[in-house]
Design brief:
554 residues; alpha/beta; 9-stranded mixed sheet; two-stranded parallel sheet; globular; SIR2-like domain-containing protein
């Protein structure tokens, strides 16, 4: 991908980069998509890129990566295939991979599966935003992460295998690999597309020559799907090089689908961010062009060392409705119109005033206007989607209207929030209010979705490092949540201390008081701190519910 001459005599050099980019993005009339590459994972998680992973696991196999690369004539996918074949023998026989074999041997059916499992397991143990990674330990990068987590975007596309995007955009529905995206009911709102697979599904990884050939052979189908995004949204490429071969292939297919006469229109929505290693270099925002199939594709190129201003520009964008609600609304209307009950014809959808009478003849309407008190008492009747904030505020007792426990357990959590395997979400309040918690603490889970049981029984533990530090410095010294929160320790350690405190030394009201004060503050705004806060909130929820069950029995 060769940059062409700038459309201006000199690149725009600006101290007001945030305002410049914000104004440019806001002018499109649609929220942007992020297209995220390995540079972002290196920046915040210190994870190696594709070549770095291959080098690392070649070394684990006792092989010289450079030998395999030279034998492959410099072709990385071919080198990956060669390394996978050597690694195959080691993975099946070496004691180091005994646990992996126990978990995955039933699904590994070729010479490449062992390497994919080993890489996936490595990534899964190193991709959490927690102490020990740059996005938490480095103050400037932690500030970037906090802003990135609040970015207002309609979706994310990534070729990375890790879970960073899942942690930052927890309400987004992920689609893993080409198959899930192309065969799904994707709504293109509040979704993440992991087009090269994910470590949570090891065999989905696009890693070797065969994987890339299959990916390339089907790339025009993927391009057709992604064209929906490129035709309507600005797309910000970040974490890539302008010379990335496989990114260029995707762009080539999209450019071909658009046609040369509309390349100019397409290019106006493409922003390409390149990282500058020089911290003293000014941020540059320039109009330039790249060659695509013999034609010039205009793009906005950004050269920057810090990404803080970039994520700040995205966090300033505004959305009229929460993304998750829009996605669900779009999906439900789409299903009703295109997939009605077999006994019915396709639906007619109309937008009418919410208090109007003309909607009586239609089964599907959008209500527009002010909600009545009755509507607000039962938001499910007007299509409102439950959020994590609703649950958290309800458990803390700061929500204006209480949630219906049956609706929360049966549909709100599994269908609207869809918590992942690493999520912490309080459920004991609703189990108690549904009469499912006995005085002895046992819980009746019959007829409930499995995810509710998983959330209720998920261990709430602190990191080994924090446990050791707590035992050394805090135990017996700080005994109440207030004393912990008033201490000079870092916020992440305070939250871990709340998990470790002896519950006999304070009341649940003491714990609730500090949680209410901390909830929604800038102090607990980073994704890592939010995750810790939610763990403590679950601890409070369990204690409160079990105490209430005992009191009721007495």
């Amino acid at each position: 991908m060769t940059p062409g001459p700038s459309d201006t005599d000199q690149p725009v050099e600006t101290d007001g980069a945030t305002e410049t980019l914000y104004a440019s993005l806001a002018s499109h009339g649609a929220l942007p998509y992020l297209f995220i590459g390995s540079g972002i994972s290196r920046r915040y998680l210190d994870l190696p890129d594709w070549e770095g992973l291959l080098r690392q696991f070649a070394t684990e196999a006792g092989e010289d990566f450079n030998f395999h690369l030279a034998t492959a004539n410099g072709d990385l996918p071919t080198a990956a295939t060669s390394i996978a074949r050597v690694f195959h023998q080691i993975w099946w026989k070496d004691d180091r991979y005994a646990d992996q074999r126990a978990a995955y041997s039933s699904i590994v059916r070729d010479e490449e599966g062992g390497l994919k499992v080993a890489i996936s397991e490595y990534i899964r143990t190193h991709d959490t935003l927690a102490a020990g990674v740059p996005g938490v330990d480095d103050q400037s990068l932690a500030a970037e992460i906090a802003l990135l987590g609040s970015a207002v975007v309609d979706g994310v596309i990534t070729t990375n295998y890790d879970s960073l995007t899942d942690q930052l955009f927890q309400s987004f529905q992920p689609y893993i690999g080409q198959d899930e995206l192309m065969m799904s009911d994707a709504q293109f709102i509040a979704e993440t597309y992991k087009i090269h697979g994910a470590a949570t599904q090891p065999l989905s990884l696009v890693l070797t020559k065969g994987d890339y050939d299959r990916f390339s052979n089907r790339n025009h189908y993927l391009a057709a799907k992604l064209l929906t995004i490129f035709a309507e949204h600005p797309v910000i490429f970040v974490g890539y090089s302008l010379g990335d071969e496989y990114l260029n292939e995707i762009l080539d297919n999209i450019a071909t689908a658009v046609g040369p006469e509309r390349l100019g229109e397409l290019g106006k929505r493409i922003y390409f961010v390149e990282w500058s290693a020089d911290p003293s270099a000014p941020t540059l925002i320039e109009q330039t062009s790249i060659e695509r199939g013999g034609s010039r594709l205009p793009i906005t190129r950004i050269d920057t060392h810090s990404f803080e201003w970039l994520w700040e520009a995205l966090s300033r964008l505004e959305r009229p409705f929460p993304a998750a609600i829009l996605r669900e609304l779009r999906k439900h209307v789409f299903d009703l119109v295109t997939h009605p009950d077999p006994s019915q014809t396709r639906e007619v959808v109309r937008a009418i005033p919410i208090d109007g009478d003309e909607g009586n003849e239609y089964r599907v309407v959008f209500g527009v206007g002010a909600f009545s008190e009755k509507d607000l008492q039962n938001l499910s009747t007007i299509g409102r989607t439950l959020t994590r904030d609703d649950i958290e505020q309800d458990v803390l007792g700061v929500r204006r209207r209480a949630l219906d426990p049956q609706n929360v357990l049966l549909s709100g959590i599994p269908d609207a929030i869809r918590p992942g395997p690493t999520s912490n979400l309080p459920v004991h309040k609703y189990l108690l209010e549904s009469g499912r918690i006995s005085p002895d603490g046992s819980i009746e889970f019959d007829d409930l979705p499995e995810v509710v049981k998983q959330l209720a029984e998920k261990p709430l533990t602190a990191s080994a490092q924090s446990v050791a530090r707590f035992n050394r410095e805090v135990q017996g010294v700080l005994k109440t949540p207030r004393e912990v929160m008033d201490s000079s320790y870092a916020t992440y350690f305070k939250l871990e201390c709340l998990i470790l405190l002896d519950p006999s030394g304070y009341t649940t009201d003491d714990l609730r008081e500090v949680l209410v004060e901390l909830y929604g503050t800038e102090e607990a705004s980073s994704p890592y701190l939010r995750a810790l806060f939610r763990k403590v909130l679950c601890l409070y929820d369990r204690r409160r519910a079990l105490e209430a069950a005992e009191i009721t029995a007495a």
